[in-house]
Amino acid sequence: MLEFGFSREDITPHYGIGLCGYLNPRHNRGAYDRLSLKAVVFKDGEGIAALVEYDLCLLTAKLCRRIEAAVAEALPELAGKTIYAATHTHTGPYTTALFSDDCTDAAYIDELIQKSVIALRNAKLSLAPAELFATTTQCSTLAFNRRYLMKNGKVLTNPGKLNPDVVKPDGATDPLIPILALKQEGEIRLLIVNISNHADTVGGDFVSADWPGRMEKEIQYQMGYDVPVISITAPQGNINHFNIATDADQTSYAEACRIGKGYAAAVLAALYQLRKVEFQGISTDSITFEAPYLTVTDEEYAEAKAICEKYKDAVKPDHDLTSEDIAKGTPYVQKYFAEALMGCRDRAPKEKRFEQISSIKFGDAVALVTLPCEPFVEIGQAIREKSRFPLTLLVALGMGEIGYVGLPRNYGNGGYETLPSAGKASQFLGEQMIDYALSTLK
User: Fold this and answer.
1) Rounded to two decimals, what is the model's pTM?
2) pLDDT tens per residue across span 330-339
3) pLDDT value, residue 348
4) What pLDDT, in 10s, does the model give residues 264-296?
5) How far from the centroid of its chain's Cα atoms is residue 390's Cα?
6) In this predicted structure, what is the pLDDT of residue 438?
7) What is the 3-state secondary structure (H, E, C) of the chain?
8) CA separation for the pair 154, 173 (Å, rounded)
9) CA distance linking residue 436 with residue 383, whole number of Å
10) What's the CA gap between 389 and 368, in Å, rounded?
């Protein structure tokens, strides 16, 4: 018999903490809305599994291991059976040093770990009989492939509104939205939705859960009670919300509200078609694999060195360096990415990197599988197409975060996601990840 339990903890940071998501430093000056971590525990006979989703930009494998160690000590039955993932909001606090060594707050990280254990414990204590329902819907108007083939034959990420040099998008989108619903006594008590889009609409220095948070609020408002909604980020490394065919301003809290309401409408409209999922048992699996680093040629290194010398006096601007700003290729941006390329050689890690992919399986009917990166949508679509499960939810930014991962064809012709930098994954890792993910779904 299926049981489930849910709990949430507030993880909104204190005033002044650094916010993660852009190249320039930003310090929290307040909050548009609260950040949460949401924990759900599933149990069916001897089988048990859990999912914790955080309103954060990312969780590194190192942080996931710290959380897992705390969970193993307090709740050993959930050790190795819990998925940890982030929504990727760009207006939440740092969880690791990215652009400076002093951007993380150790006390906040310690509290995050403690609250993860508390939420999982409370979710486990609230286990009660339930039924699992599922369906899918689609939304094709809120997400766009952000990599474009230009007239010069190069690929450019976020080329700017109404850019006349755009030829076409350089990839697909994934409009599919899998939905899981947990019902108790005939009422929906939890929704889990799997959406491919970047949670990067707000900008500025106010904390926000971005559109996933606004989607939950809109669903609750329309349903008339506070049903929890867990938004799992599907592969979105080459996806965001910018529609370059318009000149509309799409960086604001109002944009987060618009997108959240749009996704809420799509989800709510599909709830009538929920169907009960019949399955036997819950199981988990995982695989640890090497994630090799990208290497650069002598020619690439020499070119980057020349750029650094040319723009050696370029300074970081004091405004938010958004993805659209990066596409403009200002002197500072060119120097930044040239230095990043040189870092592939100058700061090449000496030790091999190992990451983890985990899965939760509900019999032979439904599965969740993680990817410790921001995968391009084509990677997720390949996994879903080859999965033996009728419904597969793809958990990007799960169990770690090693940055953007595409397929081999996405490298070498532009687009900042695939530009070389220290720590960037090999251009062949995306294909390997497809096989690794499928191996946990056997």
Assistant:
1) 0.94
2) 888 889 889 9
3) 85
4) 999 999 999 999 999 999 999 999 999 999 988
5) 23
6) 98
7) CEEEEEEEEECCCCCCCEEECCCCCCECCCECCCCEEEEEEEEECCEEEEEEEECCCCCCHHHHHHHHHHHHHHCHHHCCCEEEEECCCCCEECCCCCCCCCCCCHHHHHHHHHHHHHHHHHHHHCCEECEEEEEEEECCCCCEECEEEECCCCEEECCCCCCCCEEEECCCCCCEEEEEEEEECCEEEEEEEEECCCCCCCCCCCECCHHHHHHHHHHHHHHCCCCCEEEEECCCCCEECCCCCCCCCCCCHHHHHHHHHHHHHHHHHHHHHCEECCCCCEEEEEEEEECCECCCCHHHHHHHHHHHHHCCCCCCCCCCCCHHHHHHCCHHHHHHHHHHHHHHHHCCCCCCCEEEEEEEEECCCEEEEEECCEECHHHHHHHHHHCCCCEEEEEECECCCCCEECCHHHCCCECHHHCCCCCCECCCHHHHHHHHHHHHCC
8) 20
9) 10
10) 10
Closest-CA residue to 187 (of 129, 137, 125): 129
- pLDDT, block means (10 residues), the chain with 442 residues: 98 96 89 98 97 98 98 98 98 85 87 98 98 98 98 96 97 98 98 98 96 98 98 98 97 98 98 98 98 91 94 81 70 88 89 97 98 98 98 98 97 92 92 98 96
44: its two tokens? 């069916």
User: b/e for 245-260, b at 16 or more Cβ within 10 A?
Assistant: eeeeebbebebbbbbb
Residue in this structure with the two tokens 């409408």, named with its chain if needed:
265
Supply 227's token pair.
Answer: 């049903």
